[in-house]
Amino acid sequence: MGGIQFEELPRSEWYAARTLTSYCFGDTGAFVDWVFDRRADHVYALVESDTLLAQVIDTRVRLRARGKAVEGRIISHVATDPARRGQGLMASLLPNAMSREREEGAALAALYPFEYAYYEKYGWAACGEAARLTLPLGILRSREPSIPVRWSPVRNADASGLAICYNEAYADVAGSVVRTAELTAARLKELELDSAAAVWVMPDDAERMRGYMLYRFEGRAIVVEEFAAVDIAARRTLLSYLAAHSSTHDEVRLTVSADDPVRRLVPDRRGCVSLEPWAMFRILDVPRLSEGMRASEGYDGSISLCVVDNELPWNNGCWRFSAVDGLLHAERAYAKDAPEISINTLTRLILGGPDEAWALPPAAAEEAAMLFPQQKIWMSEQY
Predict the structure, then answer these.
(1) Per-domain residue ranges for the chain?
(2) Which end of the chain is more exposed for a tag (fewer CB within 10 A), N or C?
(3) Considering the entire predicted model, what is its pTM?
(4) For 283-371, which CATH class?
(5) What are the residues facing 224 on neighbouring strands?
């Protein structure tokens, strides 16, 4: 690619990435400042003669995957200078960025795509499904909350308490981010730009949050930006709180995972729910991600799979996945006639479960279903 170089931009040169971000995404100055001051950990770029051609921003996080938390990255604001689009720059930048992330210890990456098919060819896999609920407030039952409710402007919300509640609510959900108080504070700062508010529910006998939501008003609609609850009672209480606004607002917009129990609490769902793909994930390092994951209890079998990864060559080849004392182990192996599996399908299999085993021969599919039992997958952060 001639004089084009891959670089990790030092913070002193992030001004160029700020400019490209504003130009390509139309974001306001305040939001761009928030992205680079509070969320971005790295900016990977292709540069030619000190001119920024393309960029990838990532955020360092820990992501849940089958009972363990792994070093991960969330990729966002993938952009190419409009004058240089169509030249294959991203085909070079993305693998280089993922390679650097892996060198720094990351095992798994996530992003929200502008086009799913575009990222599929780079080994990414859509995992999980979102349910977008648009609910007339009249169908929600307004009742006296069974659990005390507390309200606060977002700027005064308890970031540490919200993080603890979030982690309890999503403890067994693959793909979810392990929240820290710092990450939660950055999320609150983002919503503060939209004048959002927070409400949370507390039990009578403890100071432990059981659920919360972050929301804002948009005309006569209530837009819930984040919703977390550890049990049905907390979900019901949060919905009751929303229903109490029926005299001033017409509807509530809420996005949850397709299998979230909150959907069962809506009396009449006809015409209220649309389902769509959500986040995409990408294995950066097969053994680093797999090692120590939870397998089916009491299962001690194994399966060999020939992984095909056209972008990250260290993932290529035959891997033996086995269960030892309920935990997954991955190692290089030679197995004649091992079924071939793309890195995309392996990602869905590891994170989601046996619903993805259809791509394998019947015997291998049965073993895969035991090694990778079905689990929930969801990432609520919208980057």
Answers:
(1) 5-111, 131-276, 283-371
(2) N
(3) 0.92
(4) alpha beta
(5) 215, 254
